[in-house]
User: Fold these one by one.
Assistant:
Number 1:
Amino acid sequence: MAGYILRRLLQAIPVLLGTTFLIYFMVFAMPGDPVVALFGDKTPPPQVLEAVRERYNLDKPFIVQYLLFLGGIFRGDFGISFSGEPVSDILARTFPVTLQLAAIATVFLAVGGILIGLISGLRKGGIFDASALVVSLILISLPIFVVAFTAQYIFGVQLGWFRTTVGSGAPIQDLILPAMVLATGSFAQIVRLTRASVIETDGQDFVRTAASKGLSRRRIVPVHILRNSLIPVVTYIAVDFGVLMVGATVTEGIFNVPGVGRTLYQAIIRGEGPTVVSFVTVMVLIYLIVNLLVDLLYAVLDPRIRYVK
Amino acid sequence: MKIKRIGVAAIALAAAGALTLTGCTSGSPSSSGAAGDSSAIITTNGSEPQNPLIPTNTNEVGGGKILDAIFAGLVYYDAKGAVHNDVAESIESDDAQNYTIKIKPDLKFTNGDPVNAESFVKAWNYGAALDNAQLSSYFFGDIEGFSLDENRPELSGLKVVDDLTFTVALVQPESDFPLSLGYSAFYPLPESAWEDLDAFGENPVGNGPYMLDGEGAWKHNEEISLVTNPDYDGPRKAQNGGLDIIFYASQDASYADLQGGNVDVVDQIPEAALASYADEFPDRSVNQAAAIFQSFTIPARLPHFSGEEGQLRRAAISMAINREEITDVIFEGTRTPAHDFTSPVIDGYSEDVPGSEVLEFNPEKAKELWAQADAIAPWSGTFQIAYNADGGHQGWVDAVSNQLKNNLGIDASGNPYPTFAEARTEITNRTIQTAFRSGWQADYPALFNFLGPLYGTGAGSNDGDYSNPEVDALLKEGRAETDIDAANEKFQQVQEILFKDLPAVPLWYSNVNGAWNDTVDNVEFGWNSVPLYYQITKAAE
Amino acid sequence: MSSNTRSTQQHYVAPVEETPLVAIDAVKAEGKPSNLWRDAWADVRRRPMFWISAAIILLVVVVALFPGLFTQVPPNNDCQLSNSNAGPAPGHPLGFTKQGCDIYSRIIHGTSTSLSVGLIVTVLVAVLGILFGAFAGFYGGWVDSVLSRLGDIFFSIPYILAAVVVMSVLSKYASIWTIALAIGIFAWPATARVLRAEILRVKNSDFVMAATALGVSRFRILLRHVLPNSIAPVIVITTISLASAIVAEATLSFLGVGLPSSIMSWGNDISQAQRDLRTAPQTLILPSIALSVTVLSFIMLGEVIRDALDPKARARR
């Protein structure tokens, strides 16, 4: 087991290099000169443009820029953003906020989605199953910005149950509404996946065996069916956690959450290569760790899966 | 979410006071006219500054709003755009080329450093020097000694006479130079700034009506907390206790917070609420023309758009656009149809410059002119207007395209660029092969500022490469006039020519749209669309 | 699958002595040679759900291919601002958009764009996801390491952000192909991971050991035994990803990197109408209904096929 974990951690190195290179290259390849954009609708003299480019190392060839950045990372220096703030400070400021947001959303997803999916699967074809399908379908066919604006207007402005946007310091109670909105995006997937998996497990021999042994349904469902249905669901939730960590661009913008998605989006639009890559580096690390934990969890959920040959 | 980049607004906007601040407020109505609580903090919307808070390196709204609150320049602009002395005792010149500037005595920065001639001269020299790569360096381009070809640490046109007096020599006469001195690039810097300018940009020290609420008052991407500067005793003395500027990623978020009572004043209204905000905030909203001019530019190099054929086609396009209908329907009346190339809030503006008929909707005449142009050379292809898709321009571009299609019988469409950077790069490099969205927000309230930088031959923002020797001569003459009315007359003559040539097709003036909760009183918006925060009052909770 | 006529050992044909429920399973083993896909078809065609969803999908496809059959109103010409957000009028059964264009016509003409984006993404995601997931899960070891880490690289870049970048880079060539590529190229690792997980579970099953013991080749085991028994969650995810792709197109429009407005699509219209959510909700709701119905049909179809492909679920009926 320890060997397996060590191997996985070593594999993180090429993944990190690959990802940072890919994203750095993509940002670099984006058409448009970020320095020109700094001047708004005014056209600066070319000499000034050149001087500003030089200050941010943007006058160097791509590979030099990338290596300069990479060198910095190994020294623990993530560079400076256009606004003069060290990127490491930005990371330290935004990741905790988004981590909380993603965690709350994941709790909603895991508890709500699995529960509803389980009931749907056990009562396949019933009224509950049909309603769950319709509701999750409506949620999935509405773009997230529509869900977010509507939720903000109804629960924030009209009913006043939640603060309309996230206040200073991003207190947890302000994050609940955006987290719920965020969860709707993957809710249907979790429900459908759980349902499908439960139906499949329900038909397995060991369930029939358990039933024929006289075990009550109350015991069979959590112990035999649910546990054995969770593998694809847990995988998806873990994968989705990574998405939530960084993919909350739209939701974070609408609820003004000072988190990763919004900051990263702005950095991409502004062409701030080093900021973008620093974020992606941290994201990749989180993602790899989550995936490793999930792979280890498989072994817990299903003893037949083993990583030690 | 939309990155807020409202055309011009991404540019410099500055001048005007600031203040406001926090507090979650719901309820607590204040009777109108009641004396405000002088310690109440006013909350307002803003955006994360894109650069360190150094006056010569800040050219966008987010940072500009903060700088205007914490610095006092030689002059300031009132709500109407009129110029008054702030730090300056006097600004004098006999020839509009050599100015003598005297500073009021005994003024201090909030750290105790004196405000003197050196504070200005050093800051300006720093801002102008090429090696410092300051984003607003071109504001010093008219001062003698400015160079884009070599680094010059000092401008030869700036001389310190005594502690409170310095002189400025310009390369040519410019009667509107004193008008521009309220722009943030011309703010002074304290002696302490030079020890570590990077640190200063994070915790700036100014001489204005407000100051940062201690170290770390700038919480990046969240908010900046300002408190009243007790030592400021100038014309913009704050009537409240401070200002919390909350950084919003989108206009929708700031408006939702206004509705939710989490913010006192906002100076922007999202598209989704344009139709309803005046009803939702009765007597507590504004919708008035501002110093922002919107147009689309048709570069002179495009085929079919030069010479006589070009003039005909440009006029036809302009007359085929129903500006009233678009401003009413698409913008819900929050834009004012354009009647010239400047803005109604500028001194010297006139609706009736000869030739401005070309901006009136006249589909028959438009068709006729287009047919005449076709007789010179037949039209083919699609007329496209390029715009940046991250700025909320699609609605009006589609509407204009549809009108051109319907009224001229030609194919027309928008040509979106995903990012502002890409659109601007193509425009700057002259690689763009279509018409493109253009806009201008004045740096200081003067007609020249809307014309010279945009239509003078080789001027900085003349992105369509328009060139007309007559226009150049008139601009130069107008600038040298020491009498403002005589100057404006020359500038209106420039506009007469522009109406014939239409280097850009004027569309409308952006209005300032804002609203506030009943927690605050005395809200007034400045000429540059920013509330005059210093005069807002708020009752005690 | 037509060449595939030989009898196949399905996994429920386990060695008799190890199977207490032999009586149940034995029924099939005595029948004529069975074929997973033929059996599935026999099962599927008995279900009304299949015919309903198939009929709707067929209709949507016909609309996409021949929009001219359904409306004569040009979708993008003759838009008059005087009709802005107006209600139904003669010849315009659903009313008008903010720009004064005919909503019905735009929905009809937007069908092919949205459907194509959805299908291309789905195919891209399914093909890449199944290839990577199946090989990684089944072969394990260094194959798994390489393929999974490659998936990690793509997946740790959030797909909306990646799509923003890809669409910016390819903005000159913006079309349904580029937008589908932008959405799909970073979305497949989710499918791959889910399939890999499922295969990890299935490959330890008794029937796989049985097949191995019988000397069936590894690749054949993967193809004929492991994959069919692991594919159910993939089908669920894939049909939903068709829906997500159509919606993602709208989100990209919202972020300003979607298709140009000259290309009609439901997503484009939804993101434009979002600004009038409170004043003219019909402009948002109508294209959303078109999207929902289409998406619903595909999800239903996915469910039916999933059930049909699951031999145990079938055996139970």
Number 2:
Amino acid sequence: MPATPVLELRGVDKSFGPVKVLHDVSFTAHAGEVTALVGDNGAGKTTLVKGIGGVHAFDRGVYRFDGRPVRPRSPRDAAALGIEIVHQDLALCENLDIVENMFLGRERSHGIALDEAAMEEAAAATLSRLSVRTVGSVRRRVSELSGGQRQTVAIARAALWDSRLVVLDEPSAALGVAQTQQVLELVRRLADRGLAVVLISHNMNDVFAVSDRVAALYLGRTVAQVRTADVTHRQVVELITSGRSGDLGPRA
Amino acid sequence: MKAGPSPEEIRRHNLGTLLRFVHLRGPASRAVLAESLGLNRSTIMALTADLTAAGLVREELPRSPGRRAGRPSLVVRPESTRVYVLAFDVGVDRLVVARVGLGGTVLARRSTDLPRGDVDPGDLVGALASSARALVRKAGRDAVCVGAALGFPGIVRRADGRIIFGPNIHLHDLDLGTALARRLGLGVPVRVANDADLGALAEHERGTGMGCDNLVYLHGDVGIGGGIIVGGRLLGGEEGFGGEIGHMVVNPNGRACACGARGCLDAEVGEPTLLDYAGRVQAPGQAGREAVRAVVDAADRGDAEAREALHRVGTWLGFAVANLVNIFNPAMVVFGGTLRDVYLGSAAQVRSMVATSALAAPRDRVKLRTAELGDDAPLIGAAEFAFTDLLADPLQVPARLREAEETPVS
């Protein structure tokens, strides 16, 4: 058991007006592991991720990062802690190239000018460290890239910073099978290089292919967080659809 | 009692260790070498001088200048374009030949299709030799071939590299290595080994299993091959026939296997079975791996028959992995060749079977991974195998080749 989880949430609540979206949610993510976050549409996955990423604050509960209580109030706060979120829309700029996108809003400067050489070198080094050979030149514009290549750039951007936790929201949703496979292998490499990775996915093959743990949300509650090696496809599907499966899930 | 190693043996060992380090880990400064190999800098300097004189490495300034002050330390770099091996991968429906430089760079490669079924050994040797010659011709004038090795999808005897049996390529009792070496006439032997064993070696030394000393590699190419690494060494058994995971019986009432038994993993998970379950016939001229990928792709798009086919195949693959986990307690199981696609397309089923069938203790930490080298794992493994002699005794091989060159052929 790794000592302290990178991310630990306990007893988290979140409401939007009268609608209580998260009730008493607990969730952990460990360094070197992929934690799959599963649940039906409306189970609260996106709300949970937005809370982790500082888009909105939780109403109540414990939020610990590397064991220390924190309260990120903006995505910038979260990034300063080492939390990177890759949203479904990827947030890449079509008219900029790969390097410019990877450093967007966090450009390196050399005196008053941008340090293009250093940024290009760092971008290329990150891509090669992650064994990404599919994007060609780092000076290609994002508008020229395929869906899988864009996803790769978005994920590599998250790994470029001294990130400790990377959250991926449905990274393979719009991709063909070959590109999905490459993205899954990239996700796995991120964790194997020591990051804590949270993967939201509806595809059970993807979840089982790369995850070390599965956390299931059902109607805004955590119903189980288990090691993937200990559960079956059927159990995970039951947790998603009915909130319990045999011994797993909250006691009635 | 045996006397301790002689200074000559120690020097040879150190030369091999240094060369192996830059071969596997890439160019390194003397300082890094000294620290990593636990030798002092003057020894490193002497060893580097010997390897440089033999034409195996060169020392140069680092490519991108460091940002630290002071004179940058020289970097020891393998002579990757000058010193190379020939690597052969005999697949069931294709032949791949590559020229691989010291340091592991694939310098050039040629791939040819092979008709399935009965293969004439003479034709096979001819096809391999002509591809190899074309690659050798393109090498620079000063380039030297220091070894050759071939991966074969079948049972190979370790002692002499003789092919005993190929279930999916109809060849048996054939000394392919000697025949090919004679045709090539490069003065180097052609070593022969099981293709999945070489895949295991490649993933262990250069792929996803780097630093992992207990791993099981499963390779899909029409049939299923396996290579097992225990304590950092390939497990071959008494005669090197071991590790045939493809012929582990997983379903006693199962399908007939080309080896004569029933319900082997090969028969339950191999490409013909997957295509059969998916209701597909292989299009003429379509390579097997394309057909397998087409099934995985169809399943991803929601094709019910393709999904069912992957589910069935995933069940047997899961049983096999559970058995392997229980018997070998590997840190990692790597899926390569077409099994990479099959695993990613049926992971939920594979891991469900492992969760229910494997013992909790060895299952707890095992990592299931896809091959970083993909279809090329056996080819890269063959290259590593071909470098064995050079790395064991770095100065002897170039000397021998030089002598052969100077002695006129009578």
Number 3:
Amino acid sequence: MPAARLSRRAVAAGIGLLPGGLAGGAGAQAPPPLIAGAADLQFALGEIAARFRAEAGQEVRLSFGSSGNIARQIEQGSPVELFLSADEAFVLRLAAGGHTRDAGALYAIGRIVLFVPPGSPIRAEDGLDGLRAALEAGRIRRFAIANPEHAPYGRAAEQALRAAGLWERLQPHLVLGENVAQATQFAIAGGSQGGIAAYSLVLAPTMRGRGAFRLLPDALHEPLRQRMALTRRAGPVAERFYTYMQEPAARAIMHRYGFVLPGE
Amino acid sequence: MDWIAFRLSVALALWTLALLLPLAVWLGRVLAYRRFPGRGFVEAAVALPLVLPPTVVGFYLLTAFGAPSPLGRAWERLFGHGLAFSFEGLLLASVIVNLPFAVQPVQNAFAAVPPRVREAGAVSGMPPWRVLLAVELPLAWPGIATAAVLTFAHTLGEFGVVLMVGGAIPGETQTIAIAIYDRVQAFDERGAGIMSAALLAVSVAALGLANTLSRRVGRRTRDA
């Protein structure tokens, strides 16, 4: 690690442009730990991190993406110290490969919604029946979901649409987001008539007034069991954050963003 | 406006210039003046990043840099952290993808120096390094300036390769182009709009500078 810090300091000294925290301007301490979260966490985890900074007096860096991509990056040597996946399979795979300390802990169960932008032919309050009606009326051109191949919310969306018997008919209309946040962005951007989004994202304050949504029954898909684990690189601050995630303050924020919490 | 990402992008662009420009001046000059077997192959290799999709370049670099690769393992042993998803890895990727933007203008500029002028220098007893400094570089200067500006602007805008090998780590690999992408995904169109406008302004300024610079230098060399 000293060599890493030295090289970063060299980067900063050479140009004098890099931010002090990462450049090791302070010299002695390591850069704040990198915490990688699934895209459905980008608002909830931002709030939790802000509280953590205020209460623990420790800085953390956040990065968001699809769980599959983050898991692959950890296998490739990314400096992530704590990984909060939207799907426990990715964490368990990393644990089996020796990339995390252990199998970690379940921290939330995610829910999916049908999201509909203003002016869409889909009646949000009818849920997937509303989607079916609009589809039969030939009024769906584009419908956004996350990529089922590597985004857990995409897989849940596929399962729900299959359960409702809509998957085959929706095929020519699907647009795939790289992760659930991008799928949600596609759904609100106006180019599509709706999409399957994360409950935690549509509950965010910035989403107010951007459209309507309907929570989909969790019986339609396998539960989005979200698991987190510390990686082999984790230091004390990441460990503290991991514990913090399971304490009442963080749980209250997660609850407000629509997550079902373990033990509830 | 995400100043951390902006500063990171500028730092990446300046570092890329610092490493790439000397290499480009050397390689561009060799390609312009020397005839050697495999010259066509080297020229094609330099041009490859222009035609390959950034995801292809990114995929190969990720495979070459990743923790399981020999380079990734050696780097980890030397510096205690991986090469992929680090600033250094990003810099190395940036140098590679910018090769054509740096080498080709330099090569064209050296090739445009009239052979008579170079020969005159050599005939009057100048050693090769003085011919380079006193004759070739002043004449090839506009091409080198163009190479620098193109490399700088292209690094600020590079997206696909950074997405593949960077991992969007704030302050380390989350460049301005990636930050814009992330702002859009966070439904923050205002933030994305401000950063996009800033990037647009910097790019226009860079191209304006390149044009002014090459015109002025061109005039001076003609007068001399």
Number 4:
Amino acid sequence: MVTASETNAVLPTADLQRLLDALSAKGYRVIGPMVREGSVVWETIRRVPDLPIGRRDQQEPGRYRVEQTGSSEIFGVVHGPQSLKPFVFAPREPLLQIERSKDGFTTSPILPEPDKVAIIGARACDLAGLAIQDRIFLNDTYRDPYYAARREGLFVIAVNCTRSLQTCFCASMDTGPRAKTGFDLALTEVDDRFLIEAGSEAGRDLLSGLSLPPASEDLAGEATRRIEACARNQVRQLDCSRLPHALYEAHEHPRWDEVAGRCLACTNCTMVCPTCFCHTVEETPDLSHQHSAHPRLWDSCFTQQHGYIHGKNIRPTIKDRYRMWLTHKLASWIDQFGTSGCVGCGRCITWCPVGIDLTEELPALLAPGVQPSIASQQMDNA
Amino acid sequence: MANPYVIHPATIVEKIQEAEDINTYRLQLVDEEARRQFRFKAGQFNMVYLFGVGEVAISIVSDPDGPEVLDHTIRTVGRVTKAIADLQPGETLGIRGPFGEGWPLEEAKGRHVVIVTGGLGCAPVVGAIEYIFRRRAQYGSIKILHGVKTPHDLLYRERFDHWRRAPDTEVLLTSDQPDKTWSYHIGVVTELFEHVTNDPAKSIVLMCGPEIMMRLGVPILLRQGIPATAVYVSLERHMECGIGLCGHCQMGPYFLCKDGPVMRYDRVERWLGRTGV
């Protein structure tokens, strides 16, 4: 691993197409943020104007808007609903080809086709999420061959954040706003220039091919100042210092009832989360009942079926499921994987239709509980 | 590393009806190489697959010394098990496994073994009992306490009779809804816990069944001086992948398909009985 400071350069924003072309020349399909139906999604990027130039996203609990700014800023949009997760842990993918035969069946794995994908515009929180998913799918007791195959072809160009959303709290989670590891290249947009840094051999290789002049100390300093200001401007934070135990101890806290009264169990938070990894496998034979692709799809702990076991449900109520999700994300994840399951991206806050905010819920759950009756009265009066 | 999702076809060589809605399927892997390589520990489970229907986690009840034929006792209770119930010998199921942590049978050597089971919970421990009997001299006394709701729920009746006749072995059965045919104890299994062992410090407990039995029963055993670190419980949750990745089987910080299903009591004590865990 190369440290960022070993290789850096300056790239005028007007020359960004050179980077896209260099990636294409190396056989990468370039994916970047693109405005679609009022949101920003990952799409194939061929030309710089495909990117959301002159746009900014405004995010608040339960609210997402993409606005025109009229500026020439290229990476003004921080993020859309998708993290990097769908590129490595596919929302739906076949696992096996199962063929019925006269006296039984045969199975063979369907591994993803090798695909070189370069993603431009990943944020530090997304990289932190990717690192956590790597830990789960590649470095646990079992190695997931499907994840491994997708991960191998991935080239990541991070963009350091110089603007925080209302919903961001990566600074308090120590995952951003600067991308520290896990990227091949990192860009920091400073007016009409990018500071471009290599974070891997592949990144350094690509960067040297661009023959760019080294970045001045002034540019690097200005980039750092803007990233630091971005961290200071974050209005949300999460204090995880008492976790996991304090949340384990809060299992009977009345706040769970209160938040369950607002939660719709819609699963949005788990779908947009960069780290949620629950999945299920479907057995879906074709109409001839001769072939089955045995697909794996994302699951959510908010569904009825998640806790089902022969005739009963371990988590029948929304309270049980919200508690499962938050306790897993912030507490038991630490015991399981040595890290929080939260990277501070704020997506679960934005994309929650009723704006449930875990940075509000956690402190409330760790504070001494009030009587549920009083809490509900306060709700009624609000 | 081998792809942990690959399913190996297995032929039903025998189907034994244990009760109206419970059958034991004796399965043999079709692929000779897979059959030769298959090794398991008592208490581990397989994902059993039926084409077009899906998979279900089922513990292996047969003797780990004879892994050529794998016995799975299945209660007809859900979508997959209902479809499996229609199958007959000669038909094909699939197997992925074995998965999970089994019973601590090495650690149990030299100790008195107390086995406490309730209902169909006795299935995952049957292989462990067979294993111990094959190495009888290496273990102390054996006490098997088994509770059922009704006499109708008593499976493996002839095995209990067989074990009862073995030296230095005690088998106590109880039913809390007995009928006239019931000649054993009446009540719940925890009522059999008085003096389960004369030497609690040198005893080990293997427990399997409803969680309420563990929650109410284990404290009684601990009061008799059996250390919490010598009590093992086999736990059940929704298991889909068997490899700790799909997320369904969590109990607190544990993935029961990978860290369990057999867990040392002191590790799970705080999670047992918590609602929604």
